[in-house]
């Protein structure tokens, strides 16, 4: 990357995203950990709740999102801890790019990872519980819900990794704040799985969209002040 | 006419919690304040000794 | 520096008196509610504590925004002070809510939007304190605290809103029906007066406590600076 003046926002964002994806493609550490973890969570749920193969739609929506969120926390923590430990964060900061572009790139990368996990989880979940979860509606909800989760998650993870107690801090910071996104996502997913009429699902979709916009824009506004040393 | 339910113990419990919590917070403020004042006094004393090495105790000198 | 400012002493006295008057009105002036009996009187300080909690968290979010713009440590101190007091009063709010719910709704806990949101709010700001504890550098601690205070406060209405429609679309019938209906009562003028006096008293108490906590924060900052100076 040439350091002649400021790189455009999107170029910088794509560069950060590309760097993350390429690193992940080489090591596959993060994705494999997230996937195995997600699978384990599903198995634990099966025993803990004594689930039958025919699952109530409301319950599968809940289990699906809890699994995604736990796996997502793993990914978020890792993705920013790696930057911190290898000193990449300082390198990124020295680069003449907009801080917001770093945030956007990291958040996009985390989003992609979560979506990959979801893309594998959804059909697997369907096989385990003998239901078809890969519906266009559910895919839409996963896209929106993961976006909101990752928007706040990336912001908070970049704070958590700079704290002494970073391994335990992220879920504690993230979960109470992200509850509205989870509630809306679970309800919307449940609605699609139960094949409810669209009028009953639409309020949740709208809410999810509104949350995504609010959380993403606030994250953009305040991210500058997290990365400045 | 129906008598109001006898919920007097809950009422007392409620106000015990309210005043109890406030009292605990006040005590915590006072305790923290005193600790910090002690620290401050100690630190200013250490600083004065540092600025004036002659006054320092023999045991602390190398 | 060490003596308490005169205005603060005056404020303490006024807040104390106001609290005494409010308590007196609750105990002796406010009428006994016809159905629920004495426990309904928890209502006055329950609402006032909830109000002070919201005030504290809102103030902390504003202080966070100003801190991020001005970078003066006093705004950070104000933020922590407001959140700490908000936590104490939200806890009072939640616990008294539970005590009220027990005889009236026949359960310690209902997943009603307000109770749930207040508790989640409490968790958000406990997380705030944990975040601060994990960071040594005061400047960074202040920045992160400000960011989290803003994000946290933003999520509160969203949480409330989500849980609210969650309940309206799928009403959860608990015990004897809709909880908001069971505990409802119409306010007599005496009740309204008592509530108003309680709100004023708690607001005064909030300002007085905030001031004290702010002074504690300033003292803490001085001690920390002294310590750093000695170490170097």
From TrEMBL, chain A:
Its main location: membrane. It is found in: Cell inner membrane. InterPro entries: Cyt_c_biogenesis_CcmB, Cyt_c_CcmB_bac. It is a multi-pass membrane protein. The chain crosses the membrane at residues 30-49, 55-76, 108-129, 135-156, 168-188, 208-227. Keywords: Cell inner membrane, Cell membrane, Cytochrome c-type biogenesis, Membrane, Transmembrane, Transmembrane helix, Transport. The keyword Phosphoprotein does not apply. The keyword Nucleotidyltransferase does not apply. One of its GO terms (cellular component) is plasma membrane. Belongs to the CcmB/CycW/HelB family. This is Heme exporter protein B. It comes from Thermanaerothrix daxensis.
UniProtKB/TrEMBL annotation, chain B:
Keywords: Membrane, Transmembrane, Transmembrane helix. It comes from the Bacteria. The chain crosses the membrane at residues 12-31. This is Heme exporter protein D. It comes from Thermanaerothrix daxensis.
TrEMBL record, chain C:
This is Heme exporter protein C. The chain crosses the membrane at residues 7-30, 42-68, 80-101, 113-131, 143-166, 195-212. Residues 15-170 form the Cytochrome c assembly protein domain. GO terms for molecular function: heme binding; heme transmembrane transporter activity. The keyword Acetylation does not apply. Keywords: Cytochrome c-type biogenesis, Membrane, Transmembrane, Transmembrane helix. Belongs to the CcmC/CycZ/HelC family. It comes from the Bacteria. Its main location: membrane. It is a multi-pass membrane protein.
